[in-house]
Every structure is written in structure tokens, then in C-alpha cells.
Amino acid sequence: MKKTLEKTGVFALSLALVACTAYSAQKELERTGGPYVPTPQIVVDEMLRMARVGPKDFIVDLGSGDGVIVLTAARQYKARGYGVDIDAELVSRSNAEAQRLGLADRASFHVRDVFKADLSKASVITLYLLPSMMVNLRPKIYIEPPPGTRVVSHDYRFDDWQPDDLIELDVPEKEKVNGVPKATILLWIVPAKVAGRWRLEVDGEGGYDVNLRQTYQVLDGSASAAGKALKISAGRLRGTDIRLTAAGSGLRREFSGTVSGDRMQGTVDLGGGRTAKWIAKKV
Questions:
Q1: pLDDT digit string (tens) for 81-126?
Q2: pTM of the model
Q3: 45: in domain
Q4: CA separation (Å) from 235 to 23, 59, 89, 165, 216?
Q5: Are 237 and 219 in contact (CB under 8 A)?
Q6: Cα(85)–Cα(65) distance, rounded to whole angstroms?
Q7: Do residues 43 and 117 share a domain?
Q8: CA distance 161 to 156
Q9: Local confidence band at 1 (pLDDT 50, 70, 90 cut-offs)
Q10: Using an 8 Å Cβ cutoff, are 251 and 230 in contact?
Q11: Rounded to whole angstroms, how far apart are CA atoms 134 and 43?
């Protein structure tokens, strides 16, 4: 009986150690965003192409690994930027490569938690992180960078924040990593924040009281003009570019324009080939 109890105790302890190890491994994945997996050059090139990277861009690569994305952007497009990673050895290797290529004035790498990275100057953000990390980063990436910042991810999504564009590539070398010889590259454009009440004026037509609701880049809401109740539909933001339709009571207006802080302006289609300018101010 004593030996049975001892065996039971050892078995229970073994189970506890396995559970503890699994929990620790899960926490490590959540902390790091996943193990280091090199991004194939064909994927790097397509990510930068989708983001339309140019010499005026500042790139922040979250989980930069070997630094290939920032280094390629600096070398091929004369862009500037930095990468962050919690692996000190990878960061050291990336900085050494920047020095070797003569790119250290435009590309740097830092040992840093991705959640503490400064995104305020980013015009392009790149990621290759596991889904749980993507979801946890979503509020930071939605709020912190300037509207219009292009966000490009390799394979993984921000859950209910749908991408503005995506493509699939044949990448045979990835089959050794995850069993699938393909890569998905996804693009988001950080939208301006326009939810709330606006007073909108159309040249020659008068004013609208508008109430907008926003879910990432998608808009809807309501409006009133000259005592008519209107429904806002087909609303969409692409960075600071805005489009929406106000319709109801026999009236239909299609607005397009740009957002700058608490102001908007653009052109409205009045129907019948007529257009007018409009401006709006947040109430």
C-alpha cells in the first residue's frame, strides 16, 4: 500500500511538472510572440512593396529577428527605421550587419519588448508574430501610430480588425516550417479617428448634423438635414481618406474627402452630375 501511494505521488508530481512546463512554454510564446523563424526574402520584398516603402518612410519592425526587413528597406528604398526584439543575440547580429552594409545611419536594432516600442514616428509597421501576440498588440497599433501608417503582417491577423488588402504567395521553403508552401501578406492602413458628432456644411446647400460610429476603418451612423433624417452607410476610412453615403427621405449624398484632426473636407456628389465642396468640424 505504501509503495502504491508513493507511485501515485510520483505520478501526480510528474503530471504537475508537465503542466508547469507547458504553462511556462505558453507564457514564453505569449511574451516573445513565438520562436525565431527567418522571413524568406521573397516575403520581405512583397511586404515592403505592399507598404509602398520609399525614402521618406520610417519603419518599425516588431519582433525584428535577424533584421532583414529594416535592412532591406534601408538598402533598397533608402528608408530609415529600427527593429525591436527581446533576443539580445539577434539584435547584436542585426546591428553588426547594419554596420557591415554601411546602413547603421538608417537602420538600428534594440533589445526591447514590442509593447514598449515607440510607434509615434512610424509610417510603416511590420510584424511576423503569433496570433495571440497580434491580438494583444492590436489596441497599441490602432491608437499609437499616426493615421495613414501602413501595417504589414506576415501570415497572421488582428482578429476582428479586417485587413484593407491581402495577397498570397507561393513560398516552397515555408513548407519545412509550418507544412504549408504559401505565405499570406496582409495590409492595414491605420484609420483616422472620426467617431462622434460633426457639423457638416455643403456649399450652396446648407448644413448637416452628423453622428458617426466607427469600427476600425468601417463607418455608419445617422444625419439630419433640413428636418430630414438620413442614414449613414457605406462609410470607409483608408488612413485619412474618408468616403460615406447619407441617404433617406428621397435624398442621397455621396461624400469623399480627407480628415485632419477635428476637421474634414472634400467633395460631395449631389446626383445628376452635380458636385459641391463640403467641410465639417467635430462638435
A1: 999 999 999 999 999 999 999 999 999 999 999 999 999 999 999 9
A2: 0.86
A3: yes
A4: 43, 29, 46, 17, 11
A5: yes
A6: 6
A7: yes
A8: 12
A9: low
A10: yes
A11: 18
